Protein backbone atom coordinates (compact mmCIF):
# COMPACT_ATOMS: atom_id res chain seq x y z
CA UNK A 1 0.00 0.00 0.00
CA UNK A 2 1.36 3.42 -0.87
CA UNK A 3 1.11 6.46 1.35
CA UNK A 4 -1.49 7.90 -1.04
CA UNK A 5 -3.71 4.84 -0.55
CA UNK A 6 -3.36 4.61 3.23
CA UNK A 7 -6.54 5.09 5.26
CA UNK A 8 -6.79 8.03 7.62
CA UNK A 9 -5.47 7.28 11.10
CA UNK A 10 -8.23 6.48 13.57
CA UNK A 11 -8.69 7.47 17.18
CA UNK A 12 -9.11 4.17 19.00
CA UNK A 13 -11.18 3.76 22.14
CA UNK A 14 -8.83 3.84 25.13
CA UNK A 15 -10.50 2.66 28.35
CA UNK A 16 -9.71 4.33 31.65
CA UNK A 17 -8.32 7.78 32.35
CA UNK A 18 -7.18 10.09 29.58
CA UNK A 19 -3.74 8.97 28.40
CA UNK A 20 -0.63 10.98 29.18
CA UNK A 21 1.76 10.93 26.21
CA UNK A 22 5.39 11.94 25.79
CA UNK A 23 6.11 12.95 22.21
CA UNK A 24 9.84 12.72 21.45
CA UNK A 25 10.93 14.60 18.33
CA UNK A 26 14.12 14.74 16.30
CA UNK A 27 13.43 17.95 14.35
CA UNK A 28 16.49 17.93 12.09
CA UNK A 29 14.06 18.37 9.17
CA UNK A 30 11.87 20.81 11.06
CA UNK A 31 9.10 21.30 8.50
CA UNK A 32 8.67 17.54 8.12
CA UNK A 33 8.66 16.82 11.85
CA UNK A 34 6.42 19.80 12.59
CA UNK A 35 3.88 18.44 10.09
CA UNK A 36 3.91 15.04 11.78
CA UNK A 37 3.76 16.66 15.21
CA UNK A 38 0.70 18.73 14.31
CA UNK A 39 -1.14 15.65 13.04
CA UNK A 40 -0.12 13.55 16.07
CA UNK A 41 -1.17 16.22 18.57
CA UNK A 42 -4.49 16.72 16.77
CA UNK A 43 -5.27 12.99 16.88
CA UNK A 44 -4.15 12.66 20.51
CA UNK A 45 -6.31 15.65 21.41
CA UNK A 46 -9.31 13.88 19.92
CA UNK A 47 -8.56 11.08 22.41
CA UNK A 48 -8.45 13.64 25.26
CA UNK A 49 -4.78 12.79 25.81
CA UNK A 50 -2.38 15.23 27.39
CA UNK A 51 0.86 15.62 25.47
CA UNK A 52 4.30 16.74 26.55
CA UNK A 53 6.88 17.29 23.84
CA UNK A 54 10.67 17.08 24.01
CA UNK A 55 13.21 17.55 21.23
CA UNK A 56 16.47 15.68 20.75
CA UNK A 57 19.39 16.38 18.43
CA UNK A 58 18.61 13.75 15.81
CA UNK A 59 17.14 10.35 15.01
CA UNK A 60 20.09 8.57 16.62
CA UNK A 61 19.10 10.08 19.98
CA UNK A 62 15.43 8.99 19.87
CA UNK A 63 15.95 5.59 21.55
CA UNK A 64 18.22 7.13 24.16
CA UNK A 65 15.59 9.75 25.00
CA UNK A 66 12.91 7.07 25.26
CA UNK A 67 15.07 5.07 27.68
CA UNK A 68 15.81 8.20 29.74
CA UNK A 69 12.09 9.01 29.93
CA UNK A 70 11.22 5.48 31.01
CA UNK A 71 13.78 5.64 33.81
CA UNK A 72 12.60 9.08 34.93
CA UNK A 73 10.21 9.93 37.74
CA UNK A 74 7.46 11.26 35.48
CA UNK A 75 5.12 8.53 34.31
CA UNK A 76 3.52 8.47 30.89
CA UNK A 77 0.98 6.03 29.50
CA UNK A 78 2.60 6.01 26.08
CA UNK A 79 5.24 7.48 23.82
CA UNK A 80 5.42 8.74 20.25
CA UNK A 81 8.78 9.08 18.46
CA UNK A 82 9.00 11.32 15.39
CA UNK A 83 11.88 12.04 13.05
CA UNK A 84 13.14 11.90 9.51
CA UNK A 85 16.30 10.56 7.87
CA UNK A 86 16.93 11.32 4.19
CA UNK A 87 19.33 9.13 2.23
CA UNK A 88 22.60 10.84 1.39
CA UNK A 89 25.75 9.83 -0.43
CA UNK A 90 27.31 7.76 2.37
CA UNK A 91 26.51 4.74 4.53
CA UNK A 92 25.56 7.10 7.38
CA UNK A 93 21.88 6.77 6.40
CA UNK A 94 21.90 2.98 6.85
CA UNK A 95 23.65 3.12 10.21
CA UNK A 96 21.35 5.81 11.61
CA UNK A 97 18.14 4.17 10.34
CA UNK A 98 19.08 0.72 11.62
CA UNK A 99 20.34 1.95 14.98
CA UNK A 100 17.41 4.29 15.62
CA UNK A 101 14.67 1.85 14.63
CA UNK A 102 16.24 -1.15 16.35
CA UNK A 103 16.98 0.96 19.42
CA UNK A 104 13.40 2.22 19.68
CA UNK A 105 12.01 -1.29 19.36
CA UNK A 106 14.47 -2.72 21.89
CA UNK A 107 13.68 -0.06 24.49
CA UNK A 108 9.93 -0.48 23.93
CA UNK A 109 10.23 -4.25 24.35
CA UNK A 110 12.54 -4.07 27.38
CA UNK A 111 10.15 -1.72 29.19
CA UNK A 112 6.89 -3.01 27.65
CA UNK A 113 6.27 0.63 26.71
CA UNK A 114 3.39 1.57 24.41
CA UNK A 115 5.19 3.27 21.51
CA UNK A 116 4.09 4.72 18.21
CA UNK A 117 6.91 5.47 15.81
CA UNK A 118 7.09 7.70 12.76
CA UNK A 119 10.76 7.80 11.89
CA UNK A 120 10.61 8.49 8.18
CA UNK A 121 13.44 6.79 6.28
CA UNK A 122 13.22 8.20 2.78
CA UNK A 123 15.24 8.75 -0.36
CA UNK A 124 14.05 12.31 -0.96
CA UNK A 125 12.54 15.25 0.89
CA UNK A 126 9.54 15.02 -1.44
CA UNK A 127 8.82 11.55 -0.05
CA UNK A 128 9.02 12.93 3.48
CA UNK A 129 6.75 15.85 2.60
CA UNK A 130 4.13 13.45 1.22
CA UNK A 131 4.16 11.56 4.53
CA UNK A 132 3.95 14.64 6.75
CA UNK A 133 1.51 16.86 4.86
CA UNK A 134 -1.57 18.38 6.42
CA UNK A 135 -3.81 16.51 4.00
CA UNK A 136 -3.68 12.83 3.15
CA UNK A 137 -1.90 10.11 5.07
CA UNK A 138 0.26 11.58 7.81
CA UNK A 139 2.71 9.27 9.56
CA UNK A 140 2.60 11.37 12.75
CA UNK A 141 -1.13 10.70 13.08
CA UNK A 142 -0.52 7.02 12.35
CA UNK A 143 2.13 6.86 15.09
CA UNK A 144 -0.21 8.55 17.57
CA UNK A 145 -2.98 6.09 16.71
CA UNK A 146 -0.58 3.15 17.13
CA UNK A 147 0.49 4.49 20.53
CA UNK A 148 -3.12 4.76 21.69
CA UNK A 149 -3.86 1.25 20.47
CA UNK A 150 -0.90 -0.09 22.46
CA UNK A 151 -2.09 1.76 25.58
CA UNK A 152 -5.56 0.26 25.14
CA UNK A 153 -4.01 -3.20 24.75
CA UNK A 154 -1.83 -2.77 27.85
CA UNK A 155 -4.82 -1.68 29.89
CA UNK A 156 -6.97 -4.53 28.59
CA UNK A 157 -4.30 -7.10 29.45
CA UNK A 158 -3.57 -5.58 32.86
CA UNK A 159 -0.06 -4.47 31.91
CA UNK A 160 -0.67 -0.77 32.52
From TrEMBL:
Binding locations of 5-amino-6-(D-ribitylamino)uracil:
28, 59-61, 84-86
Organism ancestry: Bacteria, Pseudomonadati, Pseudomonadota, Alphaproteobacteria, Acetobacterales
- Keyword Transferase among UniProt keywords: yes
Q: Where is the active site?
A: 92 (proton donor)
Its Enzyme Commission number? 2.5.1.78
MF (Gene Ontology) = 6,7-dimethyl-8-ribityllumazine synthase activity
Principal EC category = transferase
Specify the protein name.
6,7-dimethyl-8-ribityllumazine synthase
**What's the name of its gene?**
ribH
Q: Give the pathway.
A: Cofactor biosynthesis; riboflavin biosynthesis; riboflavin from 2-hydroxy-3-oxobutyl phosphate and 5-amino-6-(D-ribitylamino)uracil: step 1/2
Provide the residue positions that the database annotates as binding (2S)-2-hydroxy-3-oxobutyl phosphate.
Answer: 89-90, 131
- UniProt record similarity statement: Belongs to the DMRL synthase family.
Gene Ontology terms, cellular component aspect? Answer: cytosol; riboflavin synthase complex
Q: What does this protein do?
A: Catalyzes the formation of 6,7-dimethyl-8-ribityllumazine by condensation of 5-amino-6-(D-ribitylamino)uracil with 3,4-dihydroxy-2-butanone 4-phosphate. This is the penultimate step in the biosynthesis of riboflavin.
Q: Which reaction does it catalyse?
A: (2S)-2-hydroxy-3-oxobutyl phosphate + 5-amino-6-(D-ribitylamino)uracil = 6,7-dimethyl-8-(1-D-ribityl)lumazine + phosphate + 2 H2O + H(+)
- GO biological process terms, semicolon-separated: riboflavin biosynthetic process
Supply the alphabetized keyword list: Riboflavin biosynthesis, Transferase
The answer to keyword Transferase applying to this record is: yes
Amino acid sequence: MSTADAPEAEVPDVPGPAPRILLIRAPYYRQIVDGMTDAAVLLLGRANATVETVDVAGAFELPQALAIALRGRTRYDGYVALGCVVRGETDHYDFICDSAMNGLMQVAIDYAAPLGTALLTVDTLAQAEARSAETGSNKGAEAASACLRQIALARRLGAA
